[in-house]
Amino acid sequence: MIKSKKRAAYLLWPLFAGISLPAISVELPRIRYVGAEQPPYLIKQGLSAGGPFADLFRQVNREAGIQDSYEIVPPARAYSEAQKTPDTCALLILRSPERESLFTWVGPIIHITVSAYIAPGSFERPQSFDDLRSGTIGILEGAAYKKLLVGQGLTPDETYQEINNAKKLASGRIKFWVTNQFVARTISKEAKLPMPEKSLDIAAYDVYVACNKKLNGRLIQKLNERWDAARRKGLLKDMGL
Hints:
Radius of gyration: 25 Å
Structural class: alpha/beta
Strand content: 25-35%
Helix content: 25-40%
Shape: globular
Largest sheet: 8 strands, mixed
Distance between the termini: 75 Å
Strand order of the largest sheet: 4-1-5-10-6-9-7-8
Mean pLDDT: 87
Order of helices and strands: HEEEHEHEEEHEHEHEHH
Number of helices: 8
C-alpha cells in the first residue's frame, strides 16, 4: 500500500512540475488623511499633500504598517469628513473639550499658543478681549477658538486660508489676526510680509490628528506609539516645532 502511494505521487509530479503557487499578499490597513493647507508644513502637492508634516506622517504610517493617502481640503470639510467617514483622519486639529467625544485622537503632535497679532508698528496693543472690539478680527474658518471669541461677544471674520488673514492685516483690512505662533511666522515669511507682533494670548491648545470613531483601536495605538518614538528622536524639533 505504501509503495502504491509513492508510485502515485511520482506519476502526479510531472503534472505539477514548473507550476508556481500564487504568492499570498497581505493587504495593509488603510487610512485616508485630510487637512487644511498650512504652509510650509502641510501644502497641496498635485492631488496629494507635501511639506515636512506630510513627509513625517508618511514615515510614521510606514513604520506602523499602514497604507496612507492624503488630500488637502478646506478646514471645515476636513473636520466634517473625519467625523462622518470611516478610516479617515483630519490632520492638525486642535483638541478641545467640545471636540473630545467626537473623535479618537493621535498625539499630541505639537503644542500651540493662539494669540491676537497686530501689524508691526501698530500703536494700539490689545491687552484684553474688550480691546479687540475696536477692530475686525481675522481667523481661520472652523477654528476651535472661534467659540471662545464669540463667547466674549466678538464676531470674527473667517477665511479658509491663513494667508488671506496675513495679507488683510498687512493692508489694514483687519486690525487683529488671531492665530498661533507657527502660522504667523511661516505664513508671513512665505508671503514676504512683515512679521506681525503678538499682543494678547487667547488660549493654549494641543494639536492632534483627529480620527473617525470607528477607526480600529489597534491602529490608533500603533500610531500613538510611532508618534511617541518620533518625538523622542527629536524629529519634530528638527522641523522647528
